[in-house]
TrEMBL record, chain A:
<dbReference type="Pfam" id="PF01867">
    <property type="entry name" value="Cas_Cas1"/>
</dbReference>
<keyword id="KW-0255">Endonuclease</keyword>
<dbReference type="GO" id="GO:0016787">
    <property type="term" value="F:hydrolase activity"/>
</dbReference>
<dbReference type="GO" id="GO:0043571">
    <property type="term" value="P:maintenance of CRISPR repeat elements"/>
</dbReference>
<keyword id="KW-0460">Magnesium</keyword>
<dbReference type="GO" id="GO:0003677">
    <property type="term" value="F:DNA binding"/>
</dbReference>
<protein>
    <recommendedName>
        <fullName>CRISPR-associated endonuclease Cas1</fullName>
        <ecNumber>3.1.-.-</ecNumber>
    </recommendedName>
</protein>
<comment type="function">
    <text>CRISPR (clustered regularly interspaced short palindromic repeat), is an adaptive immune system that provides protection against mobile genetic elements (viruses, transposable elements and conjugative plasmids). CRISPR clusters contain spacers, sequences complementary to antecedent mobile elements, and target invading nucleic acids. CRISPR clusters are transcribed and processed into CRISPR RNA (crRNA). Acts as a dsDNA endonuclease. Involved in the integration of spacer DNA into the CRISPR cassette.</text>
</comment>
<keyword id="KW-0378">Hydrolase</keyword>
Automatic annotation (TrEMBL), chain B:
<feature type="domain" description="DUF83">
    <location>
        <begin position="5"/>
        <end position="165"/>
    </location>
</feature>
<dbReference type="InterPro" id="IPR011604">
    <property type="entry name" value="PDDEXK-like_dom_sf"/>
</dbReference>
<protein>
    <submittedName>
        <fullName>CRISPR-associated protein Cas4</fullName>
    </submittedName>
</protein>
<dbReference type="Pfam" id="PF01930">
    <property type="entry name" value="Cas_Cas4"/>
</dbReference>
<dbReference type="InterPro" id="IPR022765">
    <property type="entry name" value="Dna2/Cas4_DUF83"/>
</dbReference>
Length: 334, 172
């Protein structure tokens, strides 16, 4: 089975016949024992350490339709090597663009995406609400805001409601997470441990959504809830909105509350808090396990993995823009 | 419009799949079944490929054409979709005839079943049938709307299954 590889060590990636070869190189320039990554097993690459690549290896990765995501020293997402689109469909592209340009078609999709996100946030909070935590207020506030979604006339109004929902949602985190205070969401840079975890998890979620979109006919730059921006695959942001509560936030709670990631997994710099390599590695490991966990899908009558749920979301969007079925967002049902 | 053999085969299995495939909404890359079929096609009768007898004509691609005996060979994984395979080979023979190769015949090979099936082409009988298909195909592909799902047992193993049947059934 294909799986993602996370490269934390600095080194060189090269092509060796029909496999990839990773040679670790330390600061003094000494080469370590090379590791071979069979190409059939590589789903995508996450590069956190300094990596040397050449065009031969990029051509090879491109030919195999493997994406490479790069992160800087601060674990901040830098960008991705996206191989040439291999699933072009003019009909989908036109339909997707039309669905964006016509406000009366764009708004229902944007609203649905946000409604799905809100439903999933509520699910997460209710789950912890049952566990003797007092989450009544934020839950009521989010429910209230959710009621107002149908009245939003423009996407900026929608994004306004989204902001309010998130604010209430994040306030509940301090109740859920036992040993750390979050004190509201801070990013660029994250100010404390919880924020560092959320930023890191959101990035993993975004790149996963991007990869899933890449393997469909949708265009990742044309989005509905977020404004299509340049330098951004904004459709991946749209999808991440739905999946972040389900995939990222629950994982953050469990890693912190079960003390799998601890105080010594973080490093502090001037005004920011970041995951150390140990923490980032551990997070990626549990993230990966979560991605491969399966649930019984209700309409497909079979087990599907969490990452496949994202792909299915792409299919539903494709069908929607082609007028082949109305888009209903994924809402956690358990 | 150039009609490929895949379109002909899908025409005989599922119109929705045919329509989606034609418009670039392809799912075959997600399927292990398709991959397996491709491997069987590539890994059986390997010596033939060396003779360089792949034939490309009017948008069709015949894996192996024996010019001496005028025989089209088509390799398939299983005979579950036999009528679609037959249609595909008939279409090859039709295209050959249209290009001046008369009297060719076909063999469908199922290497894993150790079976083969002969297909004869009778212009008087088959040309009108195939031209009927082509008309119908063109008409369906030009429609604005994709044909509906067919809800059959073959759907379960189709690479388009997830695409066709994904839904959020219960509303919270």
């Amino acid at each position: 089975m294909k799986k993602p590889y996370y490269l934390f060590n600095p080194g060189r990636l090269s092509r060796k016949d029909n496999t990839l070869k990773f040679t670790p190189v330390d600061e003094a320039g000494n080469e370590g024992q090379p590791r071979h990554l069979p190409i059939e097993s590589v789903e995508e690459l996450y590069v956190f350490g300094a990596l040397d690549v050449n065009s031969a290896v990029l051509n090879f990765l491109g030919q195999e339709s493997i994406c490479v995501h790069f992160f800087n020293y601060y674990e901040h997402y830098t960008g991705s090597f996206m191989p040439r689109d291999y699933l072009l469909a003019g009909k989908v592209q036109i339909a997707q663009t039309r669905a964006y340009t016509e406000a009366k078609r764009r708004m229902p999709i944007a609203r649905s995406l946000l409604d799905g996100a809100a439903a999933n946030m509520l699910r997460v909070l209710r789950y912890y609400g049952y566990r003797e935590r007092d989450l009544g207020l934020p839950i009521a506030a989010i429910e209230d805001l959710r009621q107002r979604l149908p009245d939003a006339k423009t996407s900026s109004e929608l994004m306004g409601i989204e902001g309010n929902i998130r604010q209430n949602y994040y306030q509940a985190f301090d109740e859920i997470i036992l040993d750390y205070d979050m004190g509201g969401r801070s990013k660029r840079p994250p100010k404390n441990e919880v924020n560092a975890m959320i930023s890191y998890g959101n990035m993993l979620c975004y790149t996963q959504c991007l990869k899933q979109i890449y393997h469909t006919q949708l265009n990742p730059t044309i989005s509905f809830l977020h404004e299509p921006g340049y330098r951004r695959y904004s459709l991946a942001l749209d999808l991440a909105e739905i999946f972040k509560p389900v995939l990222v936030d629950r994982l953050v709670f469990s890693l912190l509350n079960k003390k799998i990631i601890q105080a010594n997994d973080f490093r502090w710099e001037l005004n920011k808090c970041l995951l150390k390599e140990s923490g980032a590695r551990n997070f990626a490991k549990y993230w990966d396990e979560r991605m491969n966990e399966t649930i019984q899908h209700r309409s497909l009558n079979k087990k599907v993995s969490y990452k496949h749920l994202i792909r299915l979301e792409c299919y539903k969007l494709t069908k929607h823009v082609l007028n082949d079925g109305e888009y209903k967002p994924f809402k956690m049902w358990w | 419009m150039q009609v490929t053999a895949t379109i002909i085969a899908y025409f005989h299995t599922c119109l929705r799949k045919m329509y989606l495939h034609h418009h670039g909404i392809r799912m075959e890359h997600t399927s292990d079944v398709v991959y397996e079929g491709k491997l069987i096609g590539e890994s059986t009768y390997e010596d033939r490929a060396a003779k360089n007898t792949q034939l490309e004509l009017d948008g069709i691609k015949i894996d192996y054409y024996d010019a001496k005996t005028k025989t089209v060979h088509e390799t398939k994984k299983s005979d579950k979709m036999e009528h679609a395979h037959e249609a595909q080979v008939l279409y090859y023979l039709y295209v050959l005839q249209r290009n001046g190769i008369e009297g060719a015949s076909g063999i469908i090979e199922y290497p894993t079943l150790r079976q083969r099936k002969h297909i004869d082409f009778d212009p008087e009988r088959d040309v009108p049938i195939i031209e009927g298909w082509l008309q119908e195909i063109e008409q369906i592909l030009e429609q604005e709307q994709c044909p509906p799902v067919i809800n059959k047992s073959i759907c379960k193993s189709c690479s388009y299954y997830d695409y066709c049947y994904v839904a959020e059934e219960i509303e919270n």
